[in-house]
Design brief:
The chain has helices at about 15-25, 55-65, 125-135, 150-160, 175-185, 190-200, 250-255, 290-300, 305-310, 315-330, 355-360, 365-370, 380-390, 405-410, and strands at about 5-10, 30-35, 70, 75-80, 85-90, 95-105, 110, 125, 145-150, 165-170, 205, 210-215, 220-225, 230-235, 235-240, 245, 260, 260-265, 275-280, 345, 350-355. With about 425 residues, the protein is of the alpha/beta class. The chain has 3 domains: about 5-110 and about 245-325, FAD/NAD(P)-binding domain (3-Layer(bba) Sandwich); about 110-240, 3-Layer(bba) Sandwich (FAD/NAD(P)-binding domain), CATH 3.50.50; about 335-390, no CATH class. Helix 5 packs antiparallel against helix 10 (about 315-330) and helix 8 (about 290-300) runs antiparallel to helix 10. The protein is globular.
């Protein structure tokens, strides 16, 4: 095993890249890893149909310029391998990396909630469809309905439209009053006001949510509640996501405290575990600007530049105010929690229906009796849905955190064989 790296950063989205770039001038050794092939995270995901903004390409180029930053791309965390040691795997090898300090920048994922027909081919998350299109999925000429909640719906619709799709409806579950109050307050964040105008769509409706996806072998149409009316519209794709949930699993496994479903941090972005920081959307959903400033604060703090970190507190506060308004405006209508019918699948890996889960009182009881969460996604989708539907505390992720090769697991012998539970 090689020498410990001074600073390990998990996640190369806006927060992780910002953390690495602010810590780098101090000269400490930095490793930044991400499970995607290229840095950028969710918002700056690359691909044949992606158009990256200048800020993203510039930050990516800067990462290459620092000889003390080592980028581990297409690399995933497999397990804990002892105190301040992680078992990692990329396409070629498995290895144990030891670190002195860690910044978790693991971002967030979409909240997918069940409704009749949501498992039909042609139905994806809103950000999910955007990621597929950036990755090269052709959608030219397709009729697309985007639904769920939050600004990601408009971003996803804009990507689809730019690639030739016909976006027939953008169904936002939040009420008109909440959305317009939010929009009226955007003058305080002028770049967000400009973005809102750029992304605006004539297909946008508030108090609107999908009741059912219809089709036999694949999606053919959707039924949408729009205010007091029900619309049925033919479409080729439905992209439906109910905002984002922080990726806290690695932080939780390490022992960081989780508060309000996010990694708890103090003013230095330090978690409750010594030498472990967290920044960006794993500490709560708030957009890329908040992720960037949090990443910078964490990078400065972890490299001993506390004064520089402190100077950024007012900027973070400004974006925290934006995040608060965003989360208030797009809070879930209780009606969304009632869309699933008794036979609607909640765990689509193991085919467990809503009625089977509703008999139980906790995630563990439901898992033991129904196999929910035991499939390929290991509960990432359904335990989060169950948290929203039934209020059940999501489980601790147990190693391995992702599927791994046997040869990778054998590397644990080099570290501490008993340390990965
Ligand atoms: C699907 C999706 C699409 C989005 N699209 C937009 C958009 O178009 N516009 C917009 O304003 N906002 C968008 N957002 C919101 C956006 O994620 C944030 O505003 C911003 O990207 C957050 O930055 P971050 O650095 O905190 O996290 P992210 O950008 O999410 O970056 C986290 C990175 O960490 C990696 N990672 C996580 N866990 C591990 C692990 N265990 N091992 C290795 N790597 C790991 C992830 O793959 C990811 O690359 C999107 C969010 C999602 C989920």
């Amino acid at each position: 095993m090689s020498r410990p790296v001074d600073l390990l950063i998990i996640g190369a989205g806006p927060a992780g890249m910002a953390a690495a770039l602010t810590a780098a001038p101090s000269g400490i050794s930095i490793a930044i890893l991400d499970d995607n092939p290229l840095p950028g995270g969710q918002i700056w995901r690359d691909g044949p149909q992606a158009q990256l903004p200048g800020q993203a390409t510039e930050m990516r180029a800067q990462l290459q310029r620092y000889s003390n930053i080592h980028l581990h791309s297409a690399c995933k965390v497999v397990a804990l391998a002892g105190p301040k040691k992680l078992l990692l795997e990329d396409a070629e090898r498995g290895y144990v990396l030891e670190y002195r300090q860690l910044i978790l920048c693991t971002g967030a994922r979409e909240l997918l909630l069940p409704f009749p027909g949501w498992t039909l081919p042609g139905v994806t998350g809103a950000g999910g469809l955007q990621a597929l299109i950036k990755g090269g999925l052709p959608v030219s000429g397709e009729r697309i309905v985007v639904a769920g909640t939050g600004p990601l719906l408009l971003a996803s619709a804009a990507t689809a439209k730019k690639n030739g799709a016909n976006v027939v409806r953008v169904a936002e579950q939040a009420a008109f009053d909440a959305v317009s109050r939010f929009a009226m307050g955007l003058w305080q964040w002028p770049n967000k006001a400009v973005q809102a105008v750029t992304l605006a769509s004539r297909a946008y409706r508030t108090s609107a949510y999908v009741l059912e996806a219809l089709g036999s072998d694949r999606l053919e149409a959707v039924r949408v509640q729009v205010g007091s009316r029900i619309e049925e519209m033919a479409c080729d794709r439905l992209a439906c996501g109910f905002s984002l949930v922080p990726n806290t699993e690695i932080g939780k496994a390490l022992g960081c405290e989780i508060r309000d479903s996010a990694i708890a941090v103090n003013e230095w972005q330090a978690s409750t575990l010594a030498d472990h920081y967290a920044a960006g959307e794993c500490t709560g959903f708030g957009g890329s600007e908040l992720a960037l400033v949090e990443g910078r604060i964490a990078g400065f703090a972890a490299s001993g530049q506390q004064e520089k970190a402190r100077e950024l507190w007012p900027e973070r506060q400004r974006w925290q105010r934006f995040a608060k308004r965003l989360n208030q405006a797009f809070a879930l209508d209780p009606a969304i929690r009632k869309l699933a019918k008794p036979d609607t699948l909640v765990c689509r890996c193991e085919d467990v229906a809503y009625a089977e889960l509703a008999e139980h009182t906790s995630w563990n009881a439901a898992k033991l009796n129904t196999r929910c969460g035991m499939g390929a996604c290991q509960g990432r989708i359904c335990s989060t849905a169950a948290h929203t539907l039934f209020g059940w505390e999501p489980p601790h992720l147990r190693p391995t955190f992702s599927p791994a090769r046997i040869a990778t697991l054998a590397c644990l012998d080099e570290a501490e064989p008993s340390s990965w539970s």
